[in-house]
């Protein structure tokens, strides 16, 4: 009996302590600030840096992108099941700004690389401002290799992108947008064959 009453006393005394320990977390959440479980919103992208295999890089602004020849793609967003029309620049055209022309595949052309590797071993790492990254191959950017298009969009339904930053990577034939990158701020070419 003595042990039971001591245990009840300990439980009763510890209950308010636990409630006090939880109160700040609840107060923090109620006051509108983020808890550790919430994800921080990404900083909107404002420029895009393209880096070629040799380390050459070029940073482009929204104004520079809008001056380039635009392509439009209409896709069904796998998350919302809605059709969206994006306007932007083909990834292959952007790669040409920082990569030697021979590194950008052209439909039907013999691609010569040093060392000679398949364009499927050359990848483009696309990064968002929140650190999200995906890799696509050169084949993904070549209409002679793949039916879909890979573009860096700067407009949605004829209006500049807003909530997704200034730039967004879109792969038109992907069934789900798992390789789309919002708030895109970097495209970096890497050769996996040399690894």
Summarize the structure.
21% of the residues lie in helices and 30% in strands.
Helix and strand arrangement:
Layout: H1 2-30, E1 47-51, E2 57-61, H2 62-67, E3 71-77, E4 82-90, H3 91-95, E5 122-128, E6 133-137, E7 150-156, E8 159-160, E9 168-171, E10 184-191
Parallel strand pairs: 1-10
Antiparallel strand pairs: 1-2, 3-4, 4-7, 5-6, 5-10, 7-8, 7-9
CATH architecture heading of the largest domain = Alpha-Beta Complex
Tally of contiguous helical segments: 3
CATH fold category name of the largest domain? Sulfite Oxidase, Chain A, domain 2
Radius of gyration: 25 Å
Kindly state the number of beta strands.
Answer: 10
Task: Indicate the low-confidence ranges by residue numbers.
Answer: 1-39, 103-114
Task: Return the string of H and E elements.
Answer: HEEHEEHEEEEEE
How would you describe the overall organization of this protein?
By secondary structure, the protein is α+β, with helices and mostly antiparallel strands. It folds into two domains: 1-37; 47-194, Oxidoreductase, molybdopterin-binding domain (Sulfite Oxidase, Chain A, domain 2). It is built from three helices and ten strands. It has helices spanning 2-30, 62-67, 91-95; strands at 47-51, 57-61, 71-77, 82-90, 122-128, 133-137, 150-156, 159-160, 168-171, 184-191. Strands 2-1-10-5-6 form a five-stranded mixed sheet. Strands 3, 4, 7, 8 and 9 form a five-stranded antiparallel sheet that branches.
